[in-house]
Amino acid sequence: MNIILLSGGSGKRLWPLSNDVRSKQFIKIFKTKEEEYESMVQRVYRQIRTVDKEATVTIATSKTQVSSIHNQLGDGVSVCVEPCRRDTFPAIALAASYLHDVLHISEEEPVVVCPVDPYVNDDYFQALKELSGIADTGEANLVLMGIEPTYPSEKYGYVIPKDKNVVSRAAAFKEKPDVETAKEYISQGALWNGGVFAFKLKYVLKKAHELMDFTDYQDFFSKYDTLNKISFDYAVVEGEDNIQVMRFNGQWKDLGTWNTLTEAMEEPSIGKAILNDKCENVHVINELDVPVLCMGLKDIVVSASAEGILVSDKEQSSYIKPYVDKISQQIMFAEKSWGSFRVLDVEEESMTIKVTLNPGHGMNYHSHERRDETWSIISGRGTAIIDDEKRTVEAGDILTMKAGCRHTIMAETELKIIEVQKGRDISVNDKRKHELPGVE
Amino acid sequence: MNIILLSGGSGKRLWPLSNDVRSKQFIKIFKTKEEEYESMVQRVYRQIRTVDKEATVTIATSKTQVSSIHNQLGDGVSVCVEPCRRDTFPAIALAASYLHDVLHISEEEPVVVCPVDPYVNDDYFQALKELSGIADTGEANLVLMGIEPTYPSEKYGYVIPKDKNVVSRAAAFKEKPDVETAKEYISQGALWNGGVFAFKLKYVLKKAHELMDFTDYQDFFSKYDTLNKISFDYAVVEGEDNIQVMRFNGQWKDLGTWNTLTEAMEEPSIGKAILNDKCENVHVINELDVPVLCMGLKDIVVSASAEGILVSDKEQSSYIKPYVDKISQQIMFAEKSWGSFRVLDVEEESMTIKVTLNPGHGMNYHSHERRDETWSIISGRGTAIIDDEKRTVEAGDILTMKAGCRHTIMAETELKIIEVQKGRDISVNDKRKHELPGVE
């Protein structure tokens, strides 16, 4: 199966675990058999591999998420990066040309497009395989997954199938309704539109060429910013008469709020937490190194990270977004392709961060114009290059870099560094990349 | 007025703002006229000065609190330090000999002993002055303050006066009763025993000499550890027939739990906090640099510090102690006489802390045997002495000290330092003090 996972979204509704650089799909919250925690992206990727070992998985995403994806799924994963945000149709069209021109997938092959963050079981991915098979028959131009509704939700669009068969023609599409209208739709046999489409690659490539004149993926990529924002539903689905819909009645959850996310937790807490016996329906997700103590709480979620602390009634947690919008604060932690960093201290003219480099990884070779930096290696060993001079480094070493000095460090084993930045105008934008010198 | 303030207590019940080195009286929680926050110690000290400019105030406390006291009240405050904990009678006796032998107060003068942490108005300290005046008349050996009860509390001892006069003889003392017994006492006219005594200095000095053979304060101090723990109530009050009690009916509160402490807060939050409009009777005290967001909470206190995070139903917050007892964690912040420090990061073989030195202050000249240290000066300027060599330092300077290296730093302006400690066996006990060399 060829599958495109759409990985988008911002991090407002699951603050403080998500932020501008970490969307909800990267929060590690699901316990694995190995007693570790995996994120939505990791879970979905693992599930696809379980159902279809040979699947060609491509993640269509924005620049801001690439580091997290490589950090969580490894460097081998296929990622199609949108140069800028242009909604789902341009994203899917770009990914289709990526599959065709970069991965050399035949235009006769079926492709499934699926969001990266449904909370589902393996049967869902089994259904995606079936969907792919149906698209492969060519009976319809588009095959959609319709999810059997469990309640009259206002959060989803609806699709009304022509009949009650597992696979049938789509009779009508409906936008997100109010509860009363949703009830009516459901009485007519409507299904939730789960945002899953299957098609032959050539179908979407043709639509892409209708949208814009381009020669190949590279050309499409370079012209991407000239496109307007437009959704796949609006641009393709609404104008298409030849659509099939396949029913799915397994578990399908959208864990978009703290309330729904905590329902999926196997245990009441992740991280250091103590709940006294007067706590009822309380969940704690604590990414800090210090404990959270909960006494006599009911129906509450507590979440703490380097970004801040949320204490919310579970019901109320759905209304968090406007409050988070008002919090203007620099990014306090991030996952990068080479590891991660966390801000430890911020002063007017200095910043202290902890950098963790994964074994075998290194930063870009770079310099800053308006700040000096000091690295204290606190664990591990590796190689640093400072102004083209290479040296091995290990725990206990101190390296100082004045403004203008080119520097990088590569980890042999996991490498942890305390970096003290000192300067009048510290900014993430004050960074110049350089070519690595010809050293081994 | 001569006043001895007893400053004891541990920090369990107001965790995470109090800890093993910061008792509740040092938490800055009371808003001043200058829109700043002061602690219980600062508030009481200020109130005494307001009522009696000339008061001789001595704080009787343990070694662990000396740094915080000097940090909050300045270097000028008179402190009588117990070499070890031996309960209130030895502490008061030691303070009495300190007043006599160090401050040269005549043994004929009256002295008032008072806890350092009552939440009261100025009229309370006015009453202490009156108490001192009554003791001065010598009509009784001991004069106690009896507080008019506002409810039948189980938390306090009771004193039953002979009559209803403002000052009368004490007829009986009662230990902390249950609620029913407390009601009965109150119907008999009982008052709360507020832990306040006044006496002529010679009275307690005589009792001290009965307790132990000693020549003067220094001698008492050196033999202090040979004493047994014994309370002033048990050792002195219970055996004394000649006691007066003075009524006090002004505000008197013991802010010993989160529930009572938050009642004294003027505003719902201190520090970075956002409460949505569905919050009712919620208090937030946040000492971290990142925000706390509260949604739809009722009757809850949230408190966050470098030590941890508490989220508690207010009623339940009284039962916090056994849970905090179970938290074993190193001290994450502390106030020192020279400034303060905060732990930023802990790894197996390293620790990163932020040190703030107040202007004009410096650390001890010291060395460590089992760790290297690096100082990154992030703001201010001062003077460092490294292995007897003196140098001026300022923001941007990096100093490295190998294990065994003697070092100190003195702040000219407020000086902030990121200190990275690196070693196999990092411990607060790995510290050797040295004599400062003969440099200016």
Number of helices of chain A: 10
Rg over alpha carbons of chain A: 24 Å
How would you sum up the global shape of chain A?
Answer: globular
Strand tally of chain A: 30
Q: What's the short version?
A:
2 copies of one chain form a homodimer. Chain A has helices spanning 40-51, 63-73, 88-101, 122-137, 179-187, 201-211, 217-223, 232-237, 258-263, 321-326; strands spanning 2-7, 30-31, 37-38, 56-62, 78-82, 110-115, 118-120, 142-147, 158-161, 167-174, 191-200, 243-248, 252-254, 269-270, 273-275, 280-286, 292-295, 298-305, 308-313, 333-336, 339-347, 350-357, 366-367, 372-379, 381-386, 389-394, 398-401, 407-411, 415-422, 432-433. Chain A has 440 residues and is of the alpha+beta class.
Written account of the structure:
Two copies of one chain form a homodimer. Helices cover 22% and strands 36% of the residues of chain A. Chain A is built from ten helices and 30 strands. Chain A has helices at residues 40-51, 63-73, 88-101, 122-137, 179-187, 201-211, 217-223, 232-237, 258-263, 321-326, and strands spanning 2-7, 30-31, 37-38, 56-62, 78-82, 110-115, 118-120, 142-147, 158-161, 167-174, 191-200, 243-248, 252-254, 269-270, 273-275, 280-286, 292-295, 298-305, 308-313, 333-336, 339-347, 350-357, 366-367, 372-379, 381-386, 389-394, 398-401, 407-411, 415-422, 432-433. In chain A, the strands form eight sheets. The first copy, chain A, has a six-stranded antiparallel beta sheet with strand order 20-21-22-29-24-27. A five-stranded mixed beta barrel of chain A has the order 8-11-9-10-12. The first copy, chain A, is globular. At the A-B interface, strand 17, strand 18, strand 19, helix 10 and strand 21 of A face strand 17, strand 18, strand 19, helix 10 and strand 21 of B. Strand 19 (308-313) of chain A pairs parallel with strand 17 (292-295) of chain B.
